[in-house]
């Protein structure tokens, strides 16, 4: 499925929302991409995973790690389709059991690709990368479906991480406008917000 068709499919299932949404960065955003809905649409989830895989298939990595929680189904779909082992970062370390922060089988020195749904400031990627690196794993790349173009790519580059995004917010808005899914006023308002609110780290 081409990127344009995927964006339209995501809009159709309600993953693209317009309104006022508080982001993890604290900013109030006029647009929100909610990929949690894809778990109820297997074909869309499979397409998301495959189109993200196409962005990174020529990179060298031993493991996948989906950022909890939205990216976990995406990373799982990629792992199952391409036979790449997966590890998982806990959001909280339990005070019982193994008390691990990284679950799965891995060896220090292996390279791990981080899988995330989207990037704004890059904070969630940093949190996952930090946990992986503390366990001796190497991180150099992260793949996302959407780059919100609010500073994440630049913030990641400062730590020598490369971001691989399927599409940007500008591209998403252009496609929705082209197919009359949004009006010019909405397009311009969201684009202005994106351009005015860069998140530095």
Could you please describe the fold and organization of this structure?
The chain has 201 residues and is of the alpha/beta class. The chain has helices spanning 3-12, 42-56, 72-82, 123-134, 152-158, 169-178, 184-196, and strands at 16-22, 28-33, 63-66, 86-89, 102-103, 112-119, 141-147, 162-168. Helix content is 39%, strand content 22%. It has a 6-stranded mixed sheet with strand order 5-4-3-6-7-8, sandwiched between helices. It has a two-stranded antiparallel sheet with strand order 1-2. Helix 5 (152-158) links the parallel strand 7 (141-147) and strand 8 (162-168). Helix 1 packs antiparallel against helix 2, helix 2 crosses helix 3 (72-82) and helix 6 packs antiparallel against helix 7. It is globular, with a radius of gyration of 17 Å. Belongs to the purine/pyrimidine phosphoribosyltransferase family. PyrE subfamily. It is an enzyme of class 2 (transferase). It comes from Candidatus Magasanikbacteria bacterium RIFCSPHIGHO2_02_FULL_51_14. Catalyzes the transfer of a ribosyl phosphate group from 5-phosphoribose 1-diphosphate to orotate, leading to the formation of orotidine monophosphate (OMP).
Give the arrangement of secondary structure elements.
Blueprint: H1 3-12, E1 16-22, E2 28-33, H2 42-56, E3 63-66, H3 72-82, E4 86-89, E5 102-103, E6 112-119, H4 123-134, E7 141-147, H5 152-158, E8 162-168, H6 169-178, H7 184-196
Parallel strand pairs: 3-4, 3-6, 6-7, 7-8
Antiparallel strand pairs: 1-2, 4-5
Helix pairs in contact: 1-2, 2-3, 6-7
| Largest sheet composition | 6 strands, mixed
The strand order across the widest sheet is 5-4-3-6-7-8
Extended strand count: 8
What value does the Rg take, in angstroms?
17 Å
Determine the number of helices (DSSP H or I, runs of at least 4 residues): 7
Give the overall shape: globular
CATH class: Alpha Beta
Low-confidence stretches: none
Q: Overall mean pLDDT score? A: 94
Order of helices and strands, N to C?
A: HEEHEHEEEHEHEHH
Quaternary structure type: single chain
Distance between the termini: 35 Å
CATH topology type: Rossmann fold
Number of domains: 1
The helix content, as a percent range, equals: 25-40%
């Amino acid at each position: 499925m081409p990127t344009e068709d995927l964006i339209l499919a995501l809009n159709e299932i309600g993953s693209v929302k317009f309104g006022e949404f508080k982001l993890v960065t604290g900013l109030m955003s006029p647009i929100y991409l909610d990929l949690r809905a894809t778990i109820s649409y297997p074909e869309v989830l499979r397409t998301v995973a495959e189109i993200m895989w196409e962005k990174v298939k020529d990179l060298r990595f031993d493991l996948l790690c989906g950022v909890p929680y939205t990216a976990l189904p995406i990373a799982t779909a990629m792992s199952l389709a391409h036979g790449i082992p997966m590890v998982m970062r806990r959001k909280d370390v339990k005070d019982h059991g193994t008390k691990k922060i990284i679950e799965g089988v891995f060896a220090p020195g292996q390279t791990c690709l981080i899988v995330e749904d989207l990037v704004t400031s890059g904070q969630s990627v940093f949190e996952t990368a930090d946990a992986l690196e503390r366990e001796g794993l190497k991180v150099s790349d992260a793949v996302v479906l959407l780059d919100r173009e609010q500073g994440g790519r630049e913030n990641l580059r400062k730590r020598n991480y490369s971001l691989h995004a399927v599409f940007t917010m500008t591209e998403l808005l252009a496609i929705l406008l082209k197919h009359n899914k949004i009006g010019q006023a909405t397009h311009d308002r969201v684009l202005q917000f994106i351009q005015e609110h860069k998140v530095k780290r």
